[in-house]
Amino acid sequence: MWRQPKAVWAVAFASVVAFMGIGLVDPILKPIADNLNASPSQVSLLFTSYMAVMGVAMLITGVVSSRIGPKRTLLVGLVIIIAGAGLAGMSGSVMEIVGWRALWGLGNALFIATALATIVSSARGSVAQAIILYEAALGLGIAVGPLVGGVLGSISWRGPFFGVSALMALALVVTAFLLPATPRAQRATTLADPFRALKHRGLFGVAITALLYNFGFFTLLAFTPFPLDMSAHQIGLIFFGWGLCLAFTSVFGAPRLQHRFGTVRTLVVNLLLFTATLTTMAIWTESKAVLAACVVIAGLFIGINNTLITETVMKAAPVERGVASAAYSFVRFAGAALAPWLAGVLGEQISVHLPYWVGAGAVLLAAGVLAATRKHLAHIDDEESAVDELTDEAEAITVGSD
């Protein structure tokens, strides 16, 4: 799995930096609120605008990539992220940051969807191995992001934004020089393709599962810094532990559990355990020790879920991988966009416990949806044929030689 073409490693490195942007702002949510006189729900819009635009933009990623090629799409996405992060750091109000985070989300959409498809098509070995490599990059980026955000955020809340912009500039250089030119798709993707893909019940069920699961995930991610009420550095360390657990189970835990118990069964049990974690946070919200411990433990379940859901999406329907990724991401990011804002409103106006109760309910419903969809996912655990593996290797050689 680890012996891959340089194209794969170039995209994986850039993916690490891209995913740092998700957790990088988490430690500075409260400092931004304090410095700019904003409420938790207003600051939570940093996640909402980012995720909402990313979700809608996922619909155009395949259209753009199939016309200008994956490499150019990745580079355009990185340039937009550099601009969005840098301008967010220069903002003077919360709403300005929210607006530039939306631009940042557009860049991330172009990059992330194309990166996943590029790694899967270029990597040697099976689809499962390629996805584990992608999730390793995701896990490493998410783990390091809060730590870097906490360190830079302890200096200034603007620091993490400028840090992302600088790191993305480095990723841009690496991608431009190490990723060979990639060919355009044989058939140009249309805006209708992702919606057609969702007609497949297996893919649609997994997408709805991911929407509900992301509701709980981003409730934890965006709202927890407020009841924790700690410094940026302390919150950064807590979410660093969360990210390490996520990275570990993404790469090592998920494949072993999948092999022993099967994909759907592992996911359903995993979602139930995540529901229990959010329920614990809802009951003991006033205890910082309980919240901190639950955040770290939740990383174990999120890592397993991310890897297995991503692999399931790639195999759920007989459509192109880029189209499947775009369709699934469009649906799932709706939950990621709504949860942070709603959690802030519920926590401010009703009860600090309620966001976690709602998040737990959403994840429990996700487990039910996935269980109901299982008959359409019976083929997920079929071994990838030798022909498929040779095709993947041939694609990797083709991309690597262009």
TrEMBL record:
Keyword entries, A-Z: Membrane, Transmembrane, Transmembrane helix
Domain Major facilitator superfamily (MFS) profile span(s) in chain numbering: 7-378
Entry-linked SUPFAM superfamilies: MFS general substrate transporter (SSF103473)
Keyword Transmembrane applies: yes
GO cellular component: plasma membrane
Main location class: membrane
Protein name: Arabinose efflux permease family protein
